[in-house]
Amino acid sequence: MTRWLNDDELRAWLNLAGVMLKLSPTLDSQLQRDSDMTHFDYLCLAMLSESADRTLRMSELAVRTNASLSRLSHVVKKLEARGWVERFPCADSGRVTMVRLTAEGWRVLVAAAPGHVETVRSLVFDGLDAEDVAALERIAGHVVELIEQAGLRTVT
């Protein structure tokens, strides 16, 4: 039996669908225009910048960016070609690939950050109070968790 959405759920879903469909292309457009990178490129650089030695295992960067390893590998290859990151084998395990933000990648990220943060602030956070931000974090985290759990299930 289909569990149809009630009126409140439908309105919430349509608003969430609007966010999903409009926010990502808007962030991509701003970053492409101002910094010649995608939002996902920016996210990869930002997550590296916040880690010790600006270095992470590829698998950890995938977790922090909510990306599959295959998608991340493709993007890191592109970022490496631009001189923004470098890949190298892990000292502890030759089977693990590390990725490090380069000095040029840091420079590009620092230049891109103000415009990106202002765009995020104006599109998402302006007009929200602290309770709204906490609710947004809780709800978004819950949805991401459900998506990740669903991705682990085998479809029969």
Automatic annotation (TrEMBL):
It comes from the Bacteria. PROSITE patterns: HTH_MARR_2. Residues 7-145 form the HTH marR-type domain. InterPro entries: HTH_MarR-typ, MarR/SlyA-like, WH-like_DNA-bd_sf, WH_DNA-bd_sf. SUPFAM superfamilies: Winged helix' DNA-binding domain (SSF46785). This is MarR family transcriptional regulator. It comes from Nocardioides jiangsuensis.
